[in-house]
Design a protein that fits this description.
alpha/beta, Nucleotidyltransferase, domain 5, five-stranded mixed sheet
């Protein structure tokens, strides 16, 4: 990667491709977003990526060869695994830890052969009955217990993406889970130690829960904003493209459509469709029905874990483009779930890609092994990342 000068981030979304270039001081030097909602051909997606990269190269006068890719999928797999090592004699923690990581990778490869590890998150470490956040590298230990949360991508998805990037002469440094890395970044910025996120994406909805800045829960269902668009298209007998544009014209808290952000060339066409076919009250009902279904399904899918973690006592933040439809009162979550508050976290291409950069640089979820002379992150990154 062009480490000495630039970090290149691609957010490979289902509805948008975002690309950002950051310099060595982590300042954004170039950014572009391309809509790909109605384009199902991934080859054409990569044509767009190549175009963006060429434009970026021209803009920054530098050849881009390597990228970090962040993405989400409805088929995300999360696994909770614990290791408890009782040793026959005092052993250096580094040796024990290395063996656990190797064992963990083998276990995932054997039992979840259709998936690849995206993130190995350490939830808790107990050394000789004491809880640690950082692991003392040279300490001799008799017992080590580690609780892991593993986030996995479908192997077929990552293999396909890797082939396409290679075909276009682009080397991928890492694949990260977008909803995880950005929610982790937002949690650090918000400085709230007990909070939840509900992300309504294009093809999926994801629920995440953090306690003491640690990810405790991540759950996805394959229903998102695209289903709302399809509902509008079907009910009002209009094209998917028009349905998506009309969906974006208003917020659930409003009583009429807002055209202020719409391009002039689309205004007359959309106004004509709305005047003939669509009432604000009916479209609200269509959207609210689907939103309520999404809420029921995501919380039902997470029911066992949500009761354990008592999510109703957390502050809920809505993220993802699908949440821009809503206001704090429109989805009536507190009729069923007693959240402390329901808030919106403002997102943009910079904040999303920057969260991927922060994760790459810091790898927040990995407890550092304390070493005085040099950082251990570089030394251990291959174990944890991939």
């Amino acid at each position: 990667m062009s480490k000495e000068k630039y970090f290149n981030l691609i957010d490979y979304g289902a509805s948008k491709i975002r690309f950002s270039v950051f310099d060595k001081n982590y300042n954004e030097k170039y950014s572009e977003t391309v809509e790909v909602i109605y384009e199902q051909n991934h080859n054409n997606h990569f044509e767009e990526i190549v175009k963006i990269i060429k434009k970026a190269e021209k803009n920054i006068s530098f050849h881009i060869e390597d990228v970090i890719v962040i993405l989400d999928t409805p088929d995300l797999l999360t696994i909770d695994i614990s290791f408890n090592k009782n040793l026959n004699k005092p052993t250096k923690i580094k040796k024990v830890y290395d063996n656990i990581i190797q064992e963990l990778n083998q276990l995932i490869e054997t039992n979840y052969s259709k998936h690849v590890i995206a993130h190995i998150i350490i939830d808790q470490c107990i050394i000789d009955e004491k809880i640690y956040i950082e692991l003392p590298e040279n300490q001799l230990i008799n017992n080590l217990k580690i609780d892991f949360k593993i986030i996995c991508f479908p192997k077929i998805l990552i293999s396909k993406l890797k082939k396409e990037f290679i075909k276009n002469n682009i080397n991928v440094i890492d694949f990260f889970c977008t909803s995880f890395v950005k929610s982790l970044s937002y949690t650090k910025k918000l400085n709230i130690n007990n909070l939840s996120y509900l992300e309504i994406g294009w093809e999926r909805t994801t629920l995440l829960y953090y306690k003491n800045y640690k990810l405790k829960l991540i759950k996805s269902i394959p229903i998102g904003g695209s289903h709302i668009t399809k509902d509008i298209s079907k009910v009002f007998n209009i094209s998917l493209e028009d349905a998506e544009k009309i969906k974006k014209l208003f917020n659930m808290s409003e009583t009429e459509f807002s055209y202020q952000n719409e391009k002039k060339e689309n205004l007359l066409h959309l106004k004509d469709i709305i005047s003939k076919n669509i009432s604000i009250n009916l479209i609200k009902k269509v959207i609210l029905y689907r939103i309520q279904e999404i809420m029921d399904l995501i919380f039902r899918a997470s029911e066992e874990q949500t009761s354990i973690y008592n999510l109703e006592q957390t502050e809920l933040f809505l993220i993802g483009e699908g949440s821009t439809l809503l206001n704090n009162n429109s989805i009536h979550l507190n009729d069923k779930f007693n959240f402390k508050s329901i808030n919106f976290y403002p997102e943009n291409s910079n904040s999303i890609c920057y969260s991927g950069l922060l994760y790459h640089l810091n790898s927040y979820e990995i407890p550092k092994i304390i070493k005085k002379k040099q950082g251990i992150f570089e030394k251990f990154f291959n174990y944890f990342g991939k």
